[in-house]
Write a structure and sequence with these properties.
The chain is α+β, with helices and mostly antiparallel strands and 169 residues long. It is built from five helices and five strands; from the N terminus they run βββααβααβα. Helix content is 34%, strand content 14%. The radius of gyration is 16 Å and the shape is globular.
Length: 169
């Protein structure tokens, strides 16, 4: 981390350790990692506040206390298409709901041929959990790719399921 305006930490969670990075504009990354938990690193006070807010809100979400995130997120560095896909997903597929690649493609006003492009945008999601790509399923309802792995995707969907609320810890 060479930019003094950025901050990072590795946060332990019941699903595994999460690398969280932020800058003064908001959280820039949430990703699963094999690195051990760390304290926040970085001198920028605002970036560190975004890290801590993200970690706290993710913890609340994983214990069933939170259904929506209100932490600032910085989507700069993503293509406009990727931002559009992720914003549409977040706006239309709330807690406890799922969608498919095809349905999300239609919501974006795209043709069925663009479903792979939509899938690519979801695969590039740098803000796992905060931007809920785990809520996107295959056309037949099957679990398909997730950067955190299919067991994490299943656990997130189970957490949000109205009829199955299992503790993660």
């Amino acid at each position: 981390m060479s930019d003094i305006s950025t901050a990072r930490l590795v946060h332990g969670s019941p699903l595994g350790n999460l690398l969280i990075e932020a800058n003064p504009a908001g959280v820039t990354r949430v990703a699963f990692t094999d690195m051990p938990p760390t304290e926040p690193i970085g001198e920028n006070h605002t970036a560190r506040e975004h890290l801590e807010a993200a970690a706290d809100q993710i913890d609340e979400y994983l214990t069933g206390e939170r259904q929506q995130f209100c932490v600032a997120m910085d989507l700069t560095g993503m293509s406009e298409f990727d931002r559009e896909v992720l914003r549409t997903l977040a706006a239309t597929t709330g807690y406890g709901r799922t969608t498919t690649y095809g349905a999300l493609t239609r919501q974006l006003g795209r043709t069925p041929a663009d479903a792979r492009k939509v899938g690519g945008a979801l695969a590039r999601n740098r803000l796992l959990i905060l931007l809920p790509c785990h809520r996107v399923l295959g056309a037949d309802g099957a679990l398909t790719g997730y950067a955190g792995g299919l067991p994490a995707k299943r656990a997130l969907l189970d957490l949000e399921s109205a009829d199955l609320l299992l503790p993660l810890g």
